[in-house]
Write a structure and sequence with these properties.
about 190 residues, mainly alpha, 7 helices, DUF2975 domain-containing protein
Length: about 190
C-alpha cells in the first residue's frame, strides 16, 4: 500500500519538474472544480434544509430567492432546484474530467486512448449541459406563463448556446486527437 502511494508521489514530482505549466493549470482546474462542487452542494443542502425550514428558501445561494415558488407549489420548487443542481454538478464533472486529462497527458507522447476518450466525454457532457439549460429555461418560461412568482435567474439559466457550441468544438477536437493517436501509433510501428 505504501509502495503504490510512493510511486504516485514520485510521478507527481516528476511531472512538476518536466511539465510545470500543465501542473499549474491542473491546480487552477482543481480550484474551479472545488468551487463548483461547493456551489452544487450548497444549493442541494439548502434545498433539503428549506423543506424543513421554509425561511431558508428566501436565500438559497448567493441571494437566490425562490420562497414564493415554494409557497405556491413545492413540487415545482424541488424540480427547478433539482435542475439547477444537475447543471452545476455537470459543470463540476467537466472540470473533474479535465483534471484527469491533465494528470494523464504526457507532452512527449501526448496522444493516448484514455485522453482521447476523456476529451470525447467532455464534449458529450458539455452538450448535455446545454440541453439541461435549454430544458430549464423552457421550464421557467412555462412556470412564468402559469403565473408562478420567479426571480430573475440569468446566472443559472444562461449560456445554452455557448455550451452547445463548445461541446461541438470539443467533439471535433476529440476526433483530431483520435487521428493524432492513430498517426502516433503508426510512427511508433515504423521506428
Amino acid at each position: 500500500m505504501f509502495g503504490k502511494k510512493n510511486i504516485i508521489i514520485m510521478e507527481w514530482k516528476k511531472k512538476w519538474v518536466t511539465q510545470p505549466g500543465l501542473m499549474l493549470i491542473t491546480i487552477v482546474i482543481w480550484s474551479i472544480f472545488i468551487g463548483l462542487c461547493i456551489q452544487a452542494g450548497a444549493i442541494l443542502f439548502t434545498l433539503i434544509y428549506s423543506l424543513f425550514n421554509p425561511i431558508v428558501a428566501q436565500n438559497l445561494y448567493e441571494g437566490l430567492n425562490l420562497s414564493a415558488l415554494m409557497e405556491q407549489d413545492i413540487r415545482h420548487y424541488i424540480g427547478l432546484l433539482s435542475l439547477i443542481v444537475a447543471i452545476t454538478g455537470l459543470k463540476a464533472y467537466i472540470f473533474y474530467l479535465m483534471i484527469r486529462i491533465f494528470l494523464k497527458i504526457n507532452l512527449t507522447h501526448p496522444f493516448s486512448k484514455e485522453v482521447s476518450k476523456l476529451i470525447s466525454k467532455i464534449g458529450q457532457v458539455t452538450v448535455e449541459i446545454a440541453l439541461f439549460i435549454i430544458f430549464t429555461n423552457a421550464y421557467v418560461k412555462w412556470l412564468s406563463k402559469r403565473e408562478f412568482d420567479l426571480p430573475a435567474m440569468g446566472e443559472y439559466m444562461g449560456g445554452a448556446f455557448e455550451y452547445f457550441l463548445m461541446g461541438i468544438i470539443i467533439y471535433a477536437i476529440s476526433k483530431v486527437f483520435k487521428r493524432g493517436l492513430e498517426i502516433q501509433s503508426e510512427n511508433e510501428l515504423t521506428v
